[in-house]
Amino acid sequence: MKKLLLTLTAVAGLTFASQAQEFGFKKTDFIVEGNFSANTTNDKTTKEKTSTFNFNPSVGYFVSDKIAVGLDFNFGNEKNTNYMGTSDTYDKVSNFGIGAYGRYYFLDLGSRFKTYAQLAAGYQQATGEINDGTSTLDVPKIKGFGAGAGLGVNYFVTENIAINFGLTDLVSFGTAKADGGKSSNAFNANINSFNNFFDTAKFGLTFKF
């Protein structure tokens, strides 16, 4: 009987603690988010090695219980090396970006899932170089601007930590131009592809303060 009472007491305590937790955001909350990826491949058949690195931190502030505004950043580089010949050759690209976003939370799926729509715009530039084994050539700097509207979901693991699922952009536009070259533009609409959201999803962590 004592074991049964202790078990019931423990279950009741856990249930109460779970119900006492509040999952979500409120006005004046700060959030810090980020996505990080690093990858290295080495194909000994083709004698090619590739390494990539990307880091996308962002900060936001809730101006109301459902609306947040913030800044995001992008740091990344990629290097492709060919070591088939007597001297290694490679090409390397580094990029940096900064942008701003507005986010509106419009749907709660249970107590832990918070769904949002987001509008974002940003500037990005890329620099690079090519090495043929004897000399290095700098490639023209590329500067670009982009904007997009998409959907996302936060799943709260604790009151202050959530997993962020940044789903595909519904609409996006981008333009880029290399120094001394002509600009190129791209427009994408993904209005009728709701079954493919997770094909391009980005996963990261959200910290609430």
Overall CATH class: Mainly Beta
Low-pLDDT segments = 1-18
- CATH topology name, in short, is Porin
- Structural class by SSE content: mainly beta
Q: How many angstroms separate the termini?
A: 44 Å
Give the amount of beta strand, in percent: over 45%
Q: How many β strands by DSSP?
A: 9
How many structural units, i.e. domains?
1
Please trace the helix and strand order, writing H or E for each element: HEEEEEEEEE
The largest beta-sheet arranges its strands as: 1-2-3-4-5-6-7-9
Overall geometric form: elongated
- In CATH, the architecture is Beta Barrel
Provide the residue-averaged pLDDT: 84
Describe the structure.
9% of the residues lie in helices and 66% in strands. With 209 residues, it is mainly β. The protein has one domain (25-208): Porin. An 8-stranded antiparallel beta barrel has the order 1-2-3-4-5-6-7-9. A hairpin with a 4-residue loop joins strand 5 (113-131) and strand 6. The protein is elongated and about 65 Å long.
Features:
209 residues, mainly beta, Porin, eight-stranded antiparallel beta barrel, 9 strands, 66% strand, elongated, disordered N terminus
Short description:
It contains one helix and nine strands; from the N terminus they run αβββββββββ. The protein has one helix spanning 2-20; strands spanning 30-43, 48-62, 67-82, 89-109, 113-131, 136-156, 161-178, 183-189, 202-208. Mean pLDDT is 84; it is low at 1-18.
